[in-house]
Amino acid sequence: MPLRLHDTRRREKVEFKTQSPGKVGMYVCGVTVYDLCHLGHARCYIAFDLIHRWLEASGYDVDYVQNFTDIDDKIIKRSIESGEDWKVLVEKNIETYYEDMDSLNILRADHYPRCTEYVDSMIHIIEDLIQKDHAYTAEDGVYFHVESAPDKYGQLTGQSIDAVRQGAGGRVQGTGDTKRDHKDFALWKQAKPGEPTWPSPWGEGRPGWHIECTAMSLDHFGVSFDIHGGGHDLRFPHHEAEIFQSECHTGHSPLAGYWLHNGFVNIDGEKMSKSLGNFWTIQEIRKKIDPMVLRFALVNAHYRSPIDMNEQLLKDAQRNHSRIIDVYASALHGCTEGQVHNLPMADITSMNPLSKSLGLLEKMAEGFARAMDDDFNSREAVAKVLAATKELQRVLSMELDEGDSRAVANYAKVWLEETAGQILGILPSPEVVLAEPEEDPRRAEIAPKVDELLAQRTAARTNKDWPRADAIRDELAELGVVVKDTPDGPTWDFA
RNA sequence: GCACGGAUGUCGGAGCGGUUACGUCGGGGAUUGCAAAUCCUCUUACCUGGGUUCAAAUCCCAGUCCGUGCUCCA
């Protein structure tokens, strides 16, 4: 089944065809490194990581470019506020960016260009746009004249230029400066005293935001490439500005074969924003929960739909994620040295329970692939993994001889690694799964007391003194300890 | 105002012409001294009004409500 994906420009799911066979050029707008990354960044780069992984798994050679915007108004503002050199600020945030993304198991892109390295090409493009009458110089910089290419307006948002001619809801003051028309956007900004600058034919200054991506994508891919991605909010004006700049400069259309935009993250039903005070940085989240659980929660939604982050969602994610890990762990434990038998034929209609289970699992794997081929529907793919988890659990606990049970364990291991591991990226490495859990310092602290109480409770239970046994359990509950009775005796953990 | 999405069971959220989503919650059962954990199992649904069709949650038209964008933003 062919891969289909939703293209923002055409506003529908279309079959994926690359510009050159077997190769994919993918450009995703990166972060402006003036601050730490937040939940929204996590969502965006996990979404494109998933796309990256699935394209690779489907046999494409993906050239993935993701930029850093390392100079802009906010970086300058932040640098002035903190008294820190802007270059130091930028380096620090880029370092943390990598750290955050690594913790979320996001595979690295192939290139991370920084816009300050491309100022010369930006100047070159701007000169060309001026020459072609698509741009003009004003007192405080150079602007792109949107009315010079009206047919390119609204390609991603469907807004007509006539509607916007009326004035965008009266909310454009403050961006006016000396440009001719409120729709025009800055290509080059004249520097104010004390700001970092680059020389240009229009005096000392720095590039506008939109031109950066144009210069970098042009440099890496040429006039056109396959996939352009980014957050939903970047459709306008950023991505439409890119279309204006690139297509007017190169004369080639379209700039990108497919435009992909990920949905936003809300917190408890509200838009995540600094003014609402519900801004979660990845650094903060990492202190509270396993980043792999966060990844699970984000992968457990379609990349285009908005996601409402809340306690319930994380709790569900925690539970379902550990269910998968548990089965993976028992599969790993079952992969012992020794003879491995051939597994019976996978056959849904078989009377042999193992054969039938293998048939079901094969079908689920197919469903997984079908889901991913359908506009990277990881939500559906996760559902298949969860269903398979149940089935794998069943298979792993079947009464089998040694050779068979090794084969089954290996099958389960591979099944999960090829789906939840390689594609969804939610499986930790075998080393991590098999590692002895690190001793919680809190646990060591109260262990003697808990063990003492548990011994008393076991004695009470042996004597069938149930009120006494339950009283001890209540006492343990007050310490925040939950008791689990197993055939091998009681175990305990923190609630 | 314009543009783009969405409306599904207690809830979160898939499906998008005929078939079990998945999970949570709730009911029943197994297990247990009782619980917890685990496993099995059950009920319940497609915003409103028209239309197309043998068949609509799914397609078309109209309406209502909600979200987002139109300004820096993943």
What does this structure look like?
The radius of gyration is 28 Å and the shape is globular. About 2% of the residues have low confidence. It starts with a strand and ends with a strand. With 495 residues, the chain is an alpha/beta fold. The protein folds into 3 domains: 267 residues, HUPs (Rossmann fold); 125 residues, Isoleucyl-tRNA Synthetase, Domain 1 (Orthogonal Bundle), CATH 1.10.730; 54 residues, no CATH class. The protein binds one RNA strand of 74 nucleotides through helix 1, helix 5, helix 10, helix 12 and helix 16.
Report the uncertain regions. 167-176
- The CATH class designation of the largest domain is Alpha Beta
- Give the name of the CATH superfamily of the largest domain: HUPs
Q: What level of helicity do the residues show?
A: 40-55%
**Total beta strand runs:** 15
Instruction: Report the radius of gyration as a whole number of Å.
Output: 28 Å
Give the count of structural domains: 3
Mean of all residue-level pLDDT scores? 89
The CATH topology of the largest domain is given as: Rossmann fold
Measured by DSSP, the beta-strand proportion falls in 5-15%
The second-level CATH architecture of the largest domain is: 3-Layer(aba) Sandwich
Q: Which structural category do the helix and sheet elements fall into?
A: alpha/beta
Report the end-to-end length measured between terminal Cα atoms: 46 Å
Question: What keyword list fits this structure?
Answer:
RNA-binding; Isoleucyl-tRNA Synthetase, Domain 1; alpha/beta; 16 helices; Rossmann fold; four-stranded parallel sheet; 495 residues; four-stranded antiparallel sheet; globular; 3 domains; 47% helix
